[in-house]
Amino acid sequence: MRLRFSLFFTLAALIAAPSALAQSAFLNEFHYDNDGGDTGEFVEIAVADGILDVEDVVITLYNGSGGASYNTVSGADLTVGASQNGYTLYTYSFPSNGIQNGSPDGIALSTTEGDVLQFLSYEGSFTATNGPANGETSDDIGVSEAGDTPVGFSLQLTGTSATYDGFTWASPMAATLGAVNTGQTFESPAPPDPDPVEVSFADETRMVREGDTLTVALELDYNENEPSGPVTVLVSFVGGASSATTADFASASVASATFPGQRARDNMAEVTFVFADDDLVEGPETATFRLAVTSGDAVTGSPNILTVTVDDAPQTATVADARAAGVGESVTIEGVVSRAAGAFLYVQDETGGLAIRQTSGPLFDAVASGAVAPGTQIRLTGTLSEFRGLLQINGSDLESYDVLGTTDAPEPQVVTLAELAENGEAYEGELVTVRNVSFAETGTFSAATTYTVSDDSDDSGVVTARVPNGSDSTVDGTEIPEVADVTAIIGQFNADDPDGGYQLLLINAEDVGNASGGGGGDEIVPIAEARAEGVGATVRIEGVVTRAAGAFLYLQDETGALTIRQTSGDLFDAIASGDVGPGTVLDVTGTLSEFRGLLQINGGDLESYEVTGTAAVPQPQVVTLAELAANGEDYEGELVYVAGVTVDGSGAFTAATTYLIDDNSEASGLVTLRVPNADDTTVDDTPIPDGPVGIIGVIGQFNADDPEGGFQLLVLDAADIDAPAPSLDVVVNGGFEMPAPGVVTGGDVPGFALNVGGAVTMAPEFAIVDDVAYEGDQSLAVTVNGTGANPWEIEVAAEPLTVEAGRTYLYSVWARSETDGGTASFTIGQPAPSYNELGRISDAALTTEWQEFTVEFTVPDGVTEIRAPIHFSYAANVGNTIYIDNLSITPAGEVAAENPVEETAATLSVTNPIRTGATVRYSLETAGDVSVALFDMLGRQVAVVADGPAGPQERTARLDAAGLASGVYVLRLQGEDVMVSRTVTVVR
């Protein structure tokens, strides 16, 4: 297991480090026994200059009888001696009988950090029982001093070497205290290897509450090494070392991160975990996380263990209940920020709103930086106070706050001034909209100023409009309208009357808008409907950005797409900063115009836009150039994929240039490839491919004369050249998740043709059923009532299927029959007129159990379209029902290639595509804990399928896709040392 290897490597490094240092500091000479009374006893060590500081060395004397230490000498107390070739000698002299006479005794050399450099002994070996060498067995040097050794002799190393290992201990000879030994020559020591690249936790301990998101910071230290590529690490929850369990997580309990491996790039990374809020009072629990390097040239440093204290979530109250508690009470609330500026933010839930005032501190800074803003989900604990009737949590009364996530900002309640005058307390702290508000004053708004307002319901002036202090609002200096719709927070400023003094607090300049005349503004319409409105129409649409660069973005929904062009302004800046990009969901209002046939919202025709969220980028539609030439208008602005495209050109692409292309379906030049202006694409100056490749692009148009011509494949991202097919599976609706259950005929089943020959004696019944399925919710049922002359006279054919010429594919289908004895033939071939077969499984015997039938086939050169018919016209099938499910055709070997580890380490399978849900099957070669989760194309986890133990026995879990938007997702199994991914398409 990779994690075990990582732990072993770390331990080995710790053990090896003292050994390496021992070659740079070692015992060189000593004297302990002589004739008569012991005298002149000393120890001499050699230290490599610049590698180890002598003050970091400790000498410890050990008694071999029992193994305990009996004296310690600090390196700072040593006397410096001679130097030679990068080594310096240091000595320490002991009083008479200061060093014991053996049988055996020993000397340990260690660092002040406790790392043992040497543990040598004389007259035998023994095991230390304390001190730095505790538990280690000494190395006998093999020579000794007898009781008749002449005074002035010693034991010393001889020979020529750069390390201790190259010297030899010699029998007693005349001592050379502080000088190079007799017969000894030091060679220059080798410089030490630099410390390895290390990855570690930024913290050793953290504290969170249940329901919180824990962001774990990781650090990469190059230690003077040069980067050698990306480094990927795995952060794993260690259940056995924790009082918490995987049930305490609302997310996966493992996460990975990758450092780019470039000095110029950030050497910090983050992973996140979400802890579940179980509403139980359990007291603090600990969650221990271990860090391991899974790929790249690095080791784990210190700390590589993170201990997190997980405390119970505060018992929260609704905002209404908190308000009812009253002044002086400490409350904990959770809600969504409706407005935030300067010293004030306003938090709202379904029951009410509350003002939070902070003139300094972390929350004030978070508002200033935008980290806390409208849409921020937040938990706050503090004591309620009141100022001029306004209930709030003020200043130091705020005890704590936690950001829980983000969502849409609360929708304002539409109210009248009369309702506010009558019952303003019910709306205090909440976001409201008042229609058609008339302002008595004119000119421009000023900060810290109150204005007289009225509407059709009330002209008493009881409710006023207030522009807060300059830092608390962006309204200061904007024009006062005569009549406008006003969105505001309800405040209060009245020390005398608890039921009076209510104010419309104007926070954002855009909250004071055009009068609606009592209506609600234009409704969002599907993009296809907006396109049908035509040039000059003002439309409001919402969709997902598929591509965005420079002056252009392309917005797409399930019905169509539209080009948005902005050469300056807020949206242009948002694209440049990356705040708006692929996956951004935009609500756009503007007037349609046309340029050279391309329908768009251009420049000043854009009235407004709003980021309303994020979503998976729509999967490119697989089309041919012939389809685009025949019906390009249907694809204008949409993201498409064309397989097997040959570009007429060589060298590198050039910005603002059009290229002829061919995909064997269309080579007349009716559809061209266009590289936009340099600012609008990253394809400029990238290589033109030599042969046929898959290309993803947006369909544009440039033709002033022919509204049906001039369609272009706009390539905007360098990664879209030689792009993989949008899905490994070239079969559309292979799981028969469309249409709804019921009898089907002809072209009712997307992606399939249902064919019955004229010679069939009684027509079969084709039906989509939801009571029998191998995977997912549905399968196709074929009930045979009569036969024709040949098996293919009753046929279900997946067609047309776009493939790449010369590529090898794997055909797979699952089938069963209502009763034993069913028969079917499965074929893959070219379409009419050749019907050339590429693969076949003939006369397959079916049983009442699901069986998989597979065959590999290779697409001939020049072929980019195939069909896959299944034949049922067999006499044995009359009166029987055959069920078909999970028909797929995928490039051979490419599913396994997606995995970063060997396929045998784990298995993961799921039907594809899915509609409302599917069964996920998984296993591990070696038993352990895994997480199986679904991620969107931005890498965000959207569903947890399983989290717990797994092993060689296959397990199943249900993937619920009912609440997911259609699009492409990644299903990922992740364990301590394994990660397997599968691409999943959700259809609606």
From TrEMBL:
Chain ranges of the CBM-cenC domain: 730-865
SUPFAM superfamilies given for it?
Answer: CalX-like, Galactose-binding domain-like
InterPro entries in the cross-refs: CalX-like_sf, CenC_carb-bd, DUF5689, Galactose-bd-like_sf, Secre_tail
Residue span(s) of domain DUF5689: 321-512
> What is the protein's name according to its record?
CBM-cenC domain-containing protein
Q: Which domain of life is it from?
A: Bacteria
Signal peptide from the UniProt entry = 1-22
Listed GO MF terms? hydrolase activity, acting on glycosyl bonds
Keywords in alphabetical order: Hydrolase, Signal
The answer to keyword Signal applying to this record is: yes
